[in-house]
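Model: You mentioned two targets. I'll fold them one after the other.
Researcher: Yes, keep them separate.
Model: Target one:
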Amino acid sequence: MGESVNMFTALKKYADFTGRARRLEYWLFYLLNMLIQGALYILAPIFAASGSAEMAVVCYILLILWGLAIFIPALAVAVRRLHDSGRSGVFVLTILIPCVGGLIFLILMCLDSQPGPNMYGPNPKERYY
């Protein structure tokens, strides 16, 4: 097994576009992001419906700030994930293709690691002694 991975690994490598990221690192980071965004999306209308418009606005502001804060680490972990499957980070731009870009990007994020070292570094799943 390689290095230990948790939900915060991608945040620790905030703007690191080099190397490789396992599927586990990418999807745990994605889960963390969805949990935080989901909580804010759920709380804002609840506050608005209960008459606390100020708290709803706070939730939406936090949502915007979270999106801005998470943009660079999300891009970095996606590029490292592409590196892990042997692809250039430029493939992250596939998400911009209308209609099918999201599906192509999803498939790329689900691909298995390229076995052994590649031009982006050693396989993070394997331990090298």
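Model: Target two:
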Amino acid sequence: MKRPSCCILAAIIAATCDADQIDKVIAKAMAAQHIPGASVAVLIHGRAIKQRSYGFSDLEQKVKATNQSAYMVGSVSKQFESTALLQLADEGRLKLDDPITKYLDGLPKAWSGITIRHLMTHTSGLKDYVGLPEHDQSQAKPVTPKQIMEWVGRYPLEFTPGTQWKYCNTGSYLEGLIIEKVTGKSYEEFAKSKLWRPLGMRSTRLNRWKDDIPNRAKGYAWGKGGREKPTFEDDTWPWAGGGVVTTLEDLVKWVQWLGSKPSNNRLWKPVQLAGSGSYPFGLDWFISDQRGTPRMFRTGGINGFSAILMRYPAHDITVILLTNEDGVPVRAFAEEIAQAVDPSLVPPHALAERPDPDNAMTDRITQALADISASNLDSKAATNALVSSTTNEDKQGIGMALRAHAKFHFLAEDDMRSHSVERLGSEIARIRHYRIEVGPMKLVKGFYLDNEGRLAFVQDE
């Protein structure tokens, strides 16, 4: 008996999928988040079953958003850098485990142990230039790579490279510089010639505010007083790791190519932390699971724009979401779109609170968090790998939450024993999901427990 082709399967799913439900999810989220315009695509087995735009790309001029509207995508840009570096490695022009000092001159001696792979996996220990006083005070003005390196170089490494994970835009900036040094071309020129143009992505480019970009969407923000002007950042700051402008049509081509090349699976291989095991982050891609269902995603937010690409490989579903509104919780938005396509993909944040069937385990999780905050390597409630791999900044945040008497509201517990989920060297037996109140904030977290009931990982949900 012949198996139905992927195209036939996609057609069947598309026919049974409630397109109106997808539109309802999008309309509800746009109203709740005050989103002026959005462009959305859903792909199943590489075929776009939904490709539509909503609202306005420019409110003042009443210009409707289209699939050709050009959005800034912030850190979604980083996936292009990692793909470019993989190509250069395949060509033998660099090695991912080479020290960055092999390619870039004038870097601090303390950076000599940092490799290209450390940059791509956000395990370098470098201080993030975003958030430095120089960035916050001068982001509306042009900046040079030399200035950024000088500012970051004043700070010691936050941890030994390869031992912990912390999101870092500085690493992405260095990735772009290495690509330029190795190729002898500007980053944009190389990306256009090797990535974007071969795939027909002719509307994808780096942002320059002075340029007249066709179909450019206008970014917006919403605050307590209503519609506000978004924070302006000169295009020299985000650059290769955050400054890409693209369209829905172009990104559909991009994700189709990503899914068609088995060699691209290297992007989604979890990084191995020295002494701790695997951490759910690949080469500039977040890797996680949604209640046991594997997924990978890349989010971005900048200058009044929020975006995400999210893939569910086991279901072969991809969601692309582009908006011209600042601070949109795009991951939750994309999860709800995916659930409209496949009702089995219920995101934790959509679960209702219910009585906790195991209060003792909740108490043990709270104790584990206290042990992590105190760097207690003798903890009976948390694994040694989790304690040692947690950054000092995160430990301080956990301590503050506990001192603020965080309230844990139980949502669900998932049995993972048949899913082969591993975090930081521990096989995960179950995941407990909670909505946590810390003052006015409400967070949804997944607590990953090993076979002995010890906390092995914590995931934002």
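Researcher: Noted. Anything on target two?
Model: The first strand starts at residue 37 and ends at 44.
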